[in-house]
């Protein structure tokens, strides 16, 4: 019971932070640079995938967080992180988003010709 409560609290905190960043013009793709150890070099999307934050992951993707940025420590994308931590929902979400975004880029390039 305590673990479930803690998970809900943390999810709420993450959502509040992201909404704050969005309303104040913050950069969702900026990697963490403070401190040492866990999270340094990772974007919010990397951390959401690692820490199994479904709502946060969807929120970030909906607000165009980059799915192609590699973190500066392990040098992997958020999709790589999801695979490493065996997060099937994130893998599906991020793969779908990549395909959609690549399709948009291809369509834009086609229109520019």
Protein architecture, described:
With 113 residues, the chain is mostly helical. Helix content is 62%, strand content 0%. It is built from 5 helices and no strands. The protein has helices at 2-23, 44-50, 54-62, 78-84, 88-112. α2 runs parallel beside α4 (78-84) and α4 (78-84) runs antiparallel to α5. The chain is globular, with a radius of gyration of 15 Å. The mean pLDDT is 79.
List keywords for this structure.
mainly alpha; single chain; 62% helix; 113 residues; globular
The low-pLDDT segments are none
How would you describe the shape? globular
> Number of helical segments?
5
- What composes the largest sheet? none
What is the strand content? under 5%
Taking all Cα atoms into account, the compactness measure Rg is 15 Å
Q: Using DSSP, what is the number of strands?
A: 0
Structural class by helix and strand composition: mainly alpha
Instruction: Give the end-to-end Cα distance, rounded to a whole number of Å.
Output: 58 Å
Mean pLDDT: 79
Binned, the helix content reads 55-70%
Q: What's the SSE pattern?
A: HHHHH
Quick summary:
By secondary structure, the protein is mostly helical. It contains five helices and no strands. It has helices at residues 2-23, 44-50, 54-62, 78-84, 88-112.
Topology:
Layout: H1 2-23, H2 44-50, H3 54-62, H4 78-84, H5 88-112
């Amino acid at each position: 019971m305590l673990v479930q409560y803690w998970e809900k609290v943390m999810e709420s905190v993450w959502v509040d932070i992201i909404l704050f960043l969005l309303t104040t013009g913050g950069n969702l793709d900026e990697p963490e640079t403070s401190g040492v150890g866990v999270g340094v070099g990772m974007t919010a999307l990397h951390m959401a995938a690692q820490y199994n934050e479904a709502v946060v992951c969807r929120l970030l993707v909906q607000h165009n967080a980059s799915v192609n940025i590699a973190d500066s420590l392990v040098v992997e994308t958020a999709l790589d992180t999801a695979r490493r931590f065996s997060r099937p929902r994130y893998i599906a979400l991020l793969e779908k988003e990549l395909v959609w975004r690549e399709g948009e880029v291809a369509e834009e390039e086609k229109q520019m010709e």
